Amino acid sequence: MHDGNYYAKIGTNSNKRKFILIIIPVLIIVVGLVYIFYTLLISQPSSNNQKNNSVEKAPNIATSSSKPSSCPNLDNLYHVCFIKREDPIIKAVLFQYGNYGDISKLDTYSSTIENRFGTATNGEVLISIENVIRHPLPKEGHKGPLPNSKPHDYTSIRQQYPWINTDSLERVWYYYNSTGENIAQEAYQTLLDSEDSSKLTDVDLIIIFSEAQFEGLAKSVGRVVLAEYPMEVAWAKEVSYRTEERGEWYIADQVIHEIGHVMGLKHATPNCFPYSDTTEACCAESPNKDDIMSYCRKRLLVSDTFGYRFKTCTLNYLKNGFLPVLISGGNKPAQIDSCK
């Protein structure tokens, strides 16, 4: 025989069982709905992710994923990086390594490079030359600032080419005693050691007009673009020897090509070179023969009214590979495949 408390317990337990039988299915349904909703939510990429995915899948592009620890690192010529910015503008300085001509003329070259670069990129990327700087070459008996710099001795060149004047001797000496890369390093170190080094703050690249002669017309070394200015031509014979100053549009074409390398671009139409008996036919068939990154382009056609540009393939890399790094900040990206 049970008292009233017993039956009260039975009633309470019965109610608990009914409550549990009702609430458990409800909880299962709720959890299931939450799971389905969450699964659908994470499966839809945001607009930013869609944009990033389109960059990663764009052809010929490898974006820079790492942020520079110190940018720019002025002590490292080869560390090419870009700090975060709002506008797609590359900041540069123009440094003349030598004292040829009127320094005011360098302003003309600066303006031409800025204008031609903006046209070549279709306005996608611009360049601003913040300062124009000049420093003379070492004189005879002196040497450059690098540990391996040689003393300038013009004796043998004078004996072999007695018609070369003193100013030209300073320039030609480098052709026999240095390389384009070493000249870039020497000029860069000279700039770092000068009172103008403070003008390099937040600068992305240095355009060097080099009186020091080297093999070739222009060259990129790290974040330096090197171009001969002026050019010593055919000094091996007195009748043909001359000092030649190319027009600003011609030099601008060379400089913009090299800036393309600083931005991570490879040469276009590399399948047509080295030069051979099939090069002309190869260039004629190439859709990128007139790209400013191509050696197929006819550089002597460049004038005050005509300049080469980045074509569809290279421009695609600039827009989708280089530009995001320039704006967001990061180390130099690189084009994966050349434009054929």
Number of helices: 9
Radius of gyration: 32 Å
Structural class: alpha/beta
The stretches of 5 or more residues where confidence is low (pLDDT under 50) are: 1-13, 40-59
Features:
single chain; alpha/beta; 11 strands; 14% strand; disordered N terminus
Characterise this structure.
The chain is globular and about 110 Å long. It is of the alpha/beta class and 340 residues long. It has a 5-stranded mixed beta sheet with strand order 4-3-5-7-6, sandwiched between helices. A two-stranded antiparallel sheet has the order 1-11. It has a two-stranded antiparallel ribbon with strand order 2-10. Helices cover 41% and strands 14% of the residues. Helix 3 crosses helix 7. Strand 6 and strand 7 form a beta hairpin. The N terminus is likely disordered.
Topology, pairings included?
Elements: H1 4-43, H2 47-57, E1 61-62, E2 81-82, E3 89-97, H3 105-120, E4 126-135, H4 155-160, H5 166-177, H6 180-193, E5 205-210, E6 218-221, E7 224-228, E8 231-233, E9 242-244, H7 248-262, H8 279-285, H9 312-328, E10 330-331, E11 334-335
Parallel strand pairs: 3-4, 3-5, 5-7
Antiparallel strand pairs: 1-11, 2-10, 6-7, 8-9
